[in-house]
Structure to design on (382 residues):
């Protein structure tokens, strides 16, 4: 009898998970309301229904022997994944815990209670006086992902657009952006990988570089374990965002109860040999874990493609891809949009148009390649 794994979502960052479940010998059911996505084309069974319609999805899945429901790269999916697992009587993090994590205000309040190093929070009605003094802040939706509606607040900002119930305001920390994933098992941080993170002018992350030698892993391991113990955080994967300030201190900006998007799992696999999708699958199936890592001869990075203006896609810059390939700097790439498709501005993670994974034998060269890729016009728009 066939055994089935359900994957919620079908975008380019779910595709590696779908491929892994299939290569592991399972029939894969993909649930998505985007029937044209590559993930739906790869599915053994494609269910063209939004995963938010839990009862409809449940009715479709009832005839199949479903062993696990998986997701990645999205925080929005988690409450629905929890509800679907409950209907299917499959193990998953409790809905109450999921809601605690995805509510940024609750999460930040808890971090502050634990005295973790995280940006100070402010009330909206405090802003007028504070921004007059030249201070800068960040406004973030209380619930949301993909960096959508995140905005820097300064003296010219119209504060009337923000309200306490929908937004939280935190101090702006000057420093280097970092991202990555960590894995908690039996209450302990088993592994984590940090990336150098870059964002576009809309504050949407568009690049990650794995440069392990530039990070104080011992210090971060201690701080992460304090957060795990203090919450406490349930076993599983967490995607994190950090800021390293000019004095070298690390600030916890965010935690998501999920595997990261933007090809972070692929970078981790290339850099360490750890396959996060395999670890997640084995956890969901209750199998024994044996996690080992190895050091790569290369450093890896990813650049996420997106449009700076609205327009119709006339093509991709294939000549620049050939240049990267001929120089030995290209690991893989994906152009995910069709010629003739109308593209929106890259103001949210789901507006991406593909990715390029690149490599080098030195950190300095990797950063140089990143700058070159970032300066290249990849999308040809009409």
């Amino acid at each position: 009898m066939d055994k089935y794994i359900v994957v919620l979502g079908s975008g380019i960052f779910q595709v590696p998970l779908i491929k892994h479940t299939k290569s592991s010998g399972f029939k894969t059911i993909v649930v998505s309301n985007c029937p044209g996505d590559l993930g739906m084309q790869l599915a053994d069974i494609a269910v063209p229904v939004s995963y938010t319609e839990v009862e409809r999805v449940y009715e479709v899945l009832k005839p199949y022997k479903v062993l696990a429901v998986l997701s990645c790269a999205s925080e929005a999916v988690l409450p629905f994944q929890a509800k679907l697992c409950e209907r299917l009587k499959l193990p998953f993090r409790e809905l109450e815990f999921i809601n605690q994590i995805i509510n940024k205000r609750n999460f930040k309040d808890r971090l502050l209670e634990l005295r973790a190093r995280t940006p100070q929070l402010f009330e909206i009605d405090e802003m007028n006086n504070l921004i007059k003094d030249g201070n800068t802040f960040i406004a973030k939706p209380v619930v949301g992902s993909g960096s959508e509606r995140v905005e820097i607040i300064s003296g010219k900002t119209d504060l009337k657009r923000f309200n306490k119930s929908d937004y939280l305001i935190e101090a702006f920390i000057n420093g280097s952006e970092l991202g990555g994933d960590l894995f908690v098992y039996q209450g302990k941080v088993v592994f984590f990988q940090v990336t150098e993170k870059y964002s576009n002018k809309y504050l949407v992350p568009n690049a990650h570089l794995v440069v392990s030698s530039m990070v104080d892993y011992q210090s971060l391991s201690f701080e992460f374990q304090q957060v795990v113990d203090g919450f406490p955080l349930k076993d599983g994967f967490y995607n994190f965002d950090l800021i390293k300030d000019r004095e070298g201190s690390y600030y916890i900006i965010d935690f998501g109860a999920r595997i990261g998007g933007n090809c972070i799992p692929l970078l981790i696999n290339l850099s360490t040999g750890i396959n996060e999708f395999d670890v997640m699958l084995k956890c969901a199936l209750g199998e024994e874990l044996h996690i080992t890592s190895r050091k790569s001869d290369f450093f890896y990075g990813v650049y996420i493609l997106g449009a700076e203006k609205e327009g119709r896609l006339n093509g991709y810059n294939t000549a620049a891809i050939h240049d990267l390939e001929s120089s030995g700097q290209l690991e893989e790439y994906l152009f995910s949009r069709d010629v003739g498709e109308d593209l929106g501005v890259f103001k949210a993670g789901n507006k991406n148009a593909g990715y390029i994974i690149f490599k080098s034998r030195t950190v300095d060269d990797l950063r140089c390649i990143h700058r070159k890729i970032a300066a290249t016009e990849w999308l040809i728009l009409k």
Remarks:
- The two ends are 51 Å apart (CA to CA).
- The chain has twelve helices and 19 strands.
